[in-house]
Every structure is written in structure tokens, then in C-alpha cells.
Design brief:
The chain is 0% helix and 59% strand. The protein is built from no helices and eleven strands. It is elongated. The mean pLDDT is 93.
């Protein structure tokens, strides 16, 4: 079992910045990918950014150049630095840990409880 604890959400004006943090604990072995998803009211959950165990990153087109995902392996923590925030970034942001246990052919996805990000003037 993996537990994810998120922090850093809040309310900012357009153009502002926030940094989200997600700390993982428990059975953290074989976590291949960690990432951030978001879900706005009435919208489907979408991938914002992800980072693999090898350090490869992916970003949604809508956040490229504004958001940066990073990982502190020693602290088992993933961060999402969000700059130049726009109202359309308003959503609940969820941390995700993707765990592949190849010896068992098992795949697990763990989710944080979500943190609200609100961007408004």
C-alpha cells in the first residue's frame, strides 16, 4: 500500500504561482511514474504532468512552459511548480503514483485526496 499526502493548493490571482507537493509513504518500491492530474467542475480528469523513475517528464500542452514537475527521490516527494497561472487552471489537483510489480504482473495506481487550486481575479 502506498499513501500520498498532498499540499500546496490555494487561491491565487492570474499570473501567480503555486507549488504543489506530494509525499509518498508505505510500499514505495517499484513506483515507475508519479504525476499530477487535475479535474475541473464538470470536466474529466486529465493528466497535467508526470515524471518517471528515470527522470523523463511529460506535460499537457496547456501547461507546457508554465509548469515544472520534479522529484526528490530521497524524500519520496514529487513537486509541481505552477507559474503564470490562468483561470482555466482552476481545478482539484490529484497526485498519482503508478506502481508496477512485474514479478507478480500487478499494476497499482494510488491517488491523493486532492488539493484545490483556484485562480481568479
Amino acid at each position: 500500500q502506498v499513501q500520498l499526502v498532498e499540499s500546496g493548493g490555494g487561491s491565487v490571482q492570474p499570473g501567480g504561482s503555486l507549488r504543489l507537493s506530494c509525499a509518498a509513504s508505505g510500499r514505495i518500491i517499484s513506483i515507475n511514474v508519479m504525476g499530477w492530474y487535475r479535474q475541473a467542475p464538470g470536466k474529466e480528469r486529465e493528466l497535467v504532468a508526470s515524471i518517471t523513475s528515470g527522470g523523463s517528464t511529460n506535460y499537457a500542452d496547456s501547461v507546457k512552459g508554465r509548469f515544472t514537475i520534479s522529484r526528490d527521490n530521497a524524500a519520496n516527494t514529487v513537486y509541481l511548480q505552477m507559474n503564470s497561472l490562468k483561470p482555466e487552471d482552476t481545478a482539484v489537483y490529484y497526485c498519482n503514483a503508478h506502481q508496477v510489480v512485474s514479478s507478480r504482473g500487478a499494476v497499482y495506481d494510488y491517488w491523493g485526496q486532492g488539493t484545490q487550486v483556484t485562480v481568479s481575479s
